[in-house]
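task queued by scheduler; priority normal; single chain, no ligands, no partner chains; default sampling; output format set to structure tokens
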Amino acid sequence: MSTLSLEHLIQKPRIQADSKPPLLLLLHGYGSNEQDLFSFAPELPEKYFIVSAKAPLPMQPYGNAWYTIHWDATDGKWSDDEEAIAARELISKFIDQAVAAYDLDATNVTLLGFSQGCILSYAVALTYPEKIKNIIGLSGYVNEAITKPKTDLSAYEHLSVFSSHGTVDQVIPVDAARKIPAYLADLNIEAKLKEYPVGHGVAPQNFYDLKDWLLKHA
């Protein structure tokens, strides 16, 4: 639908229920597009209304990004946090738009993000916990510079997190992801990091584990 602020693909629930369906929002990584994680959709739990969003910044020769990553001779690799905050706000707004446009359950929204999409999933959920029920964070980390946690930690009581990473990830080292459980614990959010012997990607076992987790946290 062009009326929403992000281009996206949808898969409607494959089972009908009397109540409004929950939203599962897929957020792809840097240089990818909305088709990438959408390949998971047929294998995901049937009750979800699945939306796969396309990041707003086109890249050359193909693909899209949620925010720019700079490679600088003096400073090395660094992210444009101002663009990332703008992306956080755009995703937050898009959630409201999608819930309204497709008549979804606003109290049951799950973010599934990979890499940049994972980083933004944490940023959105920790800044706007009232909008999110579950986070599935794949191959990313918490960027504190783009996250505005609540001081009232009761805001996070309902939030559940599945976090995973590859132990030989050369794009985002696993050490960055290993900081996630302690950061979340300070917000009274329980999360364990699942590690898999792969690089920057989603291993089959990782997918089966997140699918099982999603069934239990639906």
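post-processing summary
- The chain has a mean pLDDT of 94.
- The first strand starts at residue 8 and ends at 11.
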